[in-house]
Write a structure and sequence with these properties.
By secondary structure, this protein is α/β, with parallel strands linked by helices. It has 8 helices and 10 strands. Helix 3 packs across helix 4, helix 3 packs parallel to helix 5 and helix 4 crosses helix 5. The radius of gyration is 18 Å and the shape is globular. It binds adenosine-5'-diphosphate (2 copies).
Length: 228
């Protein structure tokens, strides 16, 4: 589904962020991308939604080079969750969540129903939490809204960049468990970036382990842990 073929990225200042990446994420698979700060995780992720162009090699989505996919179509097919999800501060949680269905042209009642459904899916109460404003939610709840919003367009692919990185450890563990459960139902193709090895082990069907700009291991967590 997502395929990197000999992908390298050198920035304008000469920094080689990643080199010769070749790997594949199967449909419905959750791959965690783990490694120390500066090893090229964000660069890798941004080459999937084309925020960054590779210097050489190809990134393919369903067999098509993403450089040939219409940007609007690409955006629709890829949901994106970041560490500090940007919610509109003057809109309620429900209004924030229905933004995407509205943009997709659904009528207000239908969008509202979809938003309520999504909030329930991520463990929020559409009535109680839905009426609040983002600053009236905890950090963990805001991240849940971020996940709901990313799922709103029903994209087959989700990119998650340290999505639970800014919440405290207990809530974080809870969100990890809940997201794993959610993934069993929604079965998205997920690339999940984290610098936390425990999170990578807990969440990943497989793990991509980076050392400076290179893929060092790509295997199931049990295999990675068992490696010498
Ligand atoms: P990570 O997400 O693992 O922290 P990044 O992909 O952000 O790593 O960065 C990989 C390397 O590329 C680092 O050495 C970083 O300093 C460098 N880098 C990132 N963005 C740029 C840029 N726009 N210009 C030059 N170097 C960059
Ligand atoms: P970082 O947290 O690593 O600094 P950024 O916040 O710079 O990442 O990059 C995320 C950017 O991508 C945001 O500006 C956001 O508006 C934009 N973005 C959000 N969703 C998508 C998407 N589906 N495709 C492309 N870009 C997106």
């Amino acid at each position: 589904m997502i395929r990197f073929e000999q992908v390298s990225k050198r920035y304008a200042d000469g920094t080689v962020a990643v080199e010769d990446l070749t790997f594949q994420i199967a449909e419905g698979e959750l791959v965690t991308l783990v490694g120390p700060s500066g090893c090229g995780k964000t660069t890798t992720m941004k080459m999937v939604n084309r925020l960054i162009e590779p210097t050489s090699g190809q990134v393919l989505l369903d067999g098509a080079d993403i450089a040939t996919i219409d940007p609007v179509d690409l955006r629709r097919r890829i949901g994106y969750v970041i560490q500090q999800v940007g919610l509109f501060p003057h809109k309620t949680v429900l209004e924030n969540t229905e933004t995407v269905p509205r943009l997709l042209g659904h009528r207000r009642t239908r969008s509202r129903a979809r938003a309520a459904e999504l909030l329930e899916l991520v463990g929020l109460d559409p009535d109680a939490h839905g009426r609040r404003y983002p600053d009236q939610l905890s950090g963990g709840q805001r991240q849940r809204v971020g996940v709901a919003r990313a799922l709103a367009a029903d994209p087959p692919v989700l990119l998650m960049d340290e999505p639970f990185g800014a919440v405290d450890p207990l809530v974080r563990e809870h969100l990890q468990t809940e997201f794993r459960k959610l993934q069993e139902t929604v079965r998205k193709t997920v690339l999940f970036v984290t610098h936390d090895i425990e999170e990578a082990v807990r969440m990943g069907d497989r793990m991509a382990v980076y050392g400076a700009g290179r893929l060092e291991q790509f295997d199931a967590p049990s295999k990675v842990l068992g490696a010498p």
